[in-house]
Every structure is written in C-alpha cells, then in structure tokens.
Amino acid sequence: AYWRQWTQRLAVPLEWQDAVIRAAITLKLSLYEDTGAIVAAMTTSIPESAHSGRNWDYRYCWLRDAFFVVRALNSLSETATMEDYLRWLSNVVVEASDGHIQPLYGIGLERELPEHFVPQLAGYRGMGPVRAGNQAAEHFQHDVYGN
User: How far is 82 from 95, CA to CA, in rounded Å?
Assistant: First the structure.
C-alpha cells in the first residue's frame, strides 16, 4: 500500500512505466529516512570485475552519487528525498569544521570509516576479499563540490 501510494504521486512517462517505477522504488530504498543519507549500495564487496580483488564497501553516502539519485527522483516530481538529503547534507557542512567535505560519510554522519578485511567471509562467489569501511573517506574529490 505504501509503494502504491508513493508511486501514484510520481510524474512517470507513459513509455516504460513499469521499468521507471521499479527504478524509482530502488532509488528511494537507498534513502535512510532517519538522517536523509542516501547509500550508494546495500551490499559490500561486489567485485568490479571477476577475481580482480577490487571489492569495495559502498554502504555509505557518497555525495556525488546521492546527487544523481536526487536528480533522477526530482525528474519524476519526487522531491521529498531531496528535502531529506539536503537536511543530511546541511549537517555534513555544519560538522565540517575545517571546511573540507569528504566524498563520503556514514549514514549517521560518521566521518571516519576505517577500512578492513573480513577474512571469515568468502565474498561474492568466493571472489573476496570482503571489506568493511571505505578508506576513500580520507580522499579529496573536488567533483563533490560541483555536484
């Protein structure tokens, strides 16, 4: 009932309606309503390519990626996600005492996301390593400011 009501308010094009609604629901599910953060992924350590070891933990709010979610949902006239996200982003900016905005944060505004391996987990189809945390929080990515 919740999703039926939510999708009825969307401005969905007639062509590809089912696919657009499914995608919109998927994007909306990435919102953590308690804080307004939008996670990049619900899982960790899905390999970029088979057996590459390039398995990262994307269960965080990447500012650039969240912008694209907000923009996509806004194009369907769904603005509540943007309002929630802007509340979260305002808190990020207030907490950035040194003026530096990280490329990603935890959904509860966590700044430190130390990365480590989880050796007891094999990973997707045995293609570990499985990681928790993401060291990219320490990086400087200036595209964050543009988005």
Answer: 20
Q: Are 25 and 101 in contact (CB under 8 A)?
A: no
* CB-based contacts of 8, cutoff 8 Å, min separation 6: none
Which tokens hold the place of 127?
């293609």
CA 33 – CA 38 distance, rounded (Å): 9
Q: Is the pTM of this model over 0.85?
A: yes
pLDDT tens-digit profile of 77-103? 999 999 999 999 999 999 887 888 899
C-beta atoms surrounding 27 within 10 Å: 18
**What does DSSP assign to residue 135?**
G
**Three-state secondary structure readout of 57-92:** ECCCEEHHHHHHHHHHHHCCCCCHHHHHHHHHHHHH
